[in-house]
Amino acid sequence: MSDTLSPQIRFGSNAGQPATRRDGIAKVTGVATFAADNNPEGLLYAVYAHAKIARGRVSHLDRAAAEAHPGVTHVITPQNRPELQGDPSAKPTMFSFRTEVLQDNTVRYAGQPIALVLGETLEAATEGARLLAPQYVADPARVGLDDNAATSFEPSGFGLPGGESHGDLEAGHAAAIRSIDVSYETAAQYHNAMETHAVVAQWDEDRLTLDIPSQALNLSCAAYGYFFGIPPQNVTVRSPYLGGGFGSKAIPTGPQVLAILAARMTQRPVKLMFTRQQMFGPAGHRGATRQRLRMGVDDTAALTVIDHDGLAETSTFDDFVEPAANASQGLYAASALRASHRLVRLDVGTPGPMRAPGEASGSAALECAMDEMAEAAGIDPLEFRLRNYAETQPGTGLPFSSKALRECYAQGAERFGWEGRPLAPLQMQDSDGLLTGWGMGAALFPCPMFAAEARATLRPDGTALFETSAVDMGQGAWTSLAQIAADSLGLTLDQVEFHAGHSSLPDGGVAGGSGHTATAGGALHAAGGDVVRQLGELATADPASPLYGAGNTSLVARDGWLLMEEDESRRERFADILARAGQTEMTGTGRAGRAPEDAMRHAMNSHGAVFAEVKVDPDLCQVRVTRLVGAFAAGRIINPRLTESQLMGGMIWGTSFALHEAARHDPRSGRIVNADFAGYHVPVNADVSGLEVITVHEDDPYVNALGIKGVGEIGVVGTVGAIGNAIWHATGKRVRHFPIRIADLLIALPPADPRGSGL
Ligand code: MOS
């Protein structure tokens, strides 16, 4: 087993089953409580006023008017803000940014908190905030990637594994008989979970209880403990349900810190909930990027070079890197590779991780560039990808822990009907005269793991309680993690009581990086395994047990029995083992994580291939995605129903990225002009049809003990390029920015409609 990361886990009858959501009924009947549903006695409502300019300072606030409004109890501004114990510029955890908590009157982005108003009712606090009528001294806003180029800099630590480049770039460029040099841009996007960020904060002396949606409960305890000068164990975070997170709820935000501060100041519980408009500011976003890709092929269409430069925005007061260029370094076997990143400082909130950070934006550019390269080489885009298939990790030569991308290509293409696709664009028109195009994109997402712990308690009635502070942000963790837990003790799903979403439980780690099922699931399975081990020790050492002397290496748990695998007649009930030992229950603990040395032995990624059909109206230039087929290989699938849902959600987000989503700034004020769901478009049912997900079987003995790779983010990744490429195939027009809108196609669409185009 020398190069195996961990022994392969035995699963029972639950893993692999399409169990329905265990929290489904609670959610549809309204019994599930989200953070802002909590209304403790004596509650005060907090509303923050936010800046309407992007750069400058607040010169006047009408505090008197706000304070005079009936029901308003307090107005907190930089002038009277109580002290915080921690430094808001510090980063107490791995998921922290400089927190904007009324340090001064400076405005650094539109949407930044500039005052907090407390009231006996939400209405009073809201009106109080409005009455502040802020006045500003404004400086010109810098909100576009070219607006502050002098500040651009290269952040450290965001290149390729093992260095900034692999192979001989000059030779790679020189060996190319055909090359492209193209730039793609992606727009800023804001997470906009259905449940906006919120907090209900209650203090009891130096103990703090928070109802707060969090993707990382124990890290939240550490961060809030730091800001308020109390130990993390004095902070209780309750986060049983989240209405979406997408990365933004991993990070403490300024308004939440201010509400907690207000609760301490007033010695009353305080509730704060962002409005929809306020989601476009202090809670992170996917920053805009501009990416230049230089690629070349030799006379066999083998890539000689992929040279990818990424420019991304960050704020003027903190650094976040959207590592888009790295996306081009794992998929294709080019002889020479380079990735570089630069950041430019803009008057925007600090960007943050947003579902498939790096890969979503990076692969949008890469997969379109691959399509352009295939076109230049005169071969089919799928054939081009197969010719450049990476058998080992490009650059490092590390073996993949597993990689069924070839099967993804084959199964996706087969289901879609890719064969026979005309190479040239503008070749397909349907009976309604709509231009039809087919495009594809490949996907890769890494498989990180975090550290997690769990506890399992076997009860005398044969049921078990499993506990970990895991997070269900809508992805289905309550269900898939319970399936893993049940299998660890050979139980049915309804014999398992599963507690999560509370920071007093063993640390379930971070729900992020698509690694939560593997991480928290690994800890849960290990906890169940610890119970089995202890039962085995009791039974095999006890002459009264049928398992006496059986040794503990071949014992398995099934249906309330501990039995010997080679001789199933030798078995004993859990209850009898416990009873004879005079125990009423038995508790086991488990941990999961990944040793750094294990991560060095293999490249670990999920893979996928997405095929898209679009239809474009030649007169109106309206684009419809009529079919999307995604085939993904992501290791062991615990729950195919939830997996399909995650992958569909990702592909819908990819559709959104390709066609809909963009935060647009007014360059004069620096404000986002479409900071609501009327102007910030996301797909609705009518925008999505013919969505098909294939999960390709993959056994991975190395990625982790459970063989799970994760499915939360990869669905976004290949989809964006597939749609962009399909639009080119339909129209002949390469639009090198996302989202692609009607106006981008109106200008240059050739009159292909036999009825005669009005263009
Ligand atoms: Mo995600 S962006 O790892 O929640």
From TrEMBL:
Keyword terms, alphabetized: Oxidoreductase
Disordered: region residues: 1-20
Gene3D superfamilies the UniProt entry points to: Aldehyde oxidase/xanthine dehydrogenase, a/b hammerhead, Aldehyde oxidase/xanthine dehydrogenase, molybdopterin binding domain
Limits of the Aldehyde oxidase/xanthine dehydrogenase a/b hammerhead domain: 29-140
Uppermost EC category: oxidoreductase
Annotated SUPFAM superfamilies: CO dehydrogenase molybdoprotein N-domain-like, Molybdenum cofactor-binding domain
Single GO MF annotation: xanthine dehydrogenase activity
Protein name: Xanthine dehydrogenase molybdenum-binding subunit
Pfam families noted in UniProt: Ald_Xan_dh_C, MoCoBD_1, MoCoBD_2
EC number: 1.17.1.4
Organism: Pseudosulfitobacter pseudonitzschiae
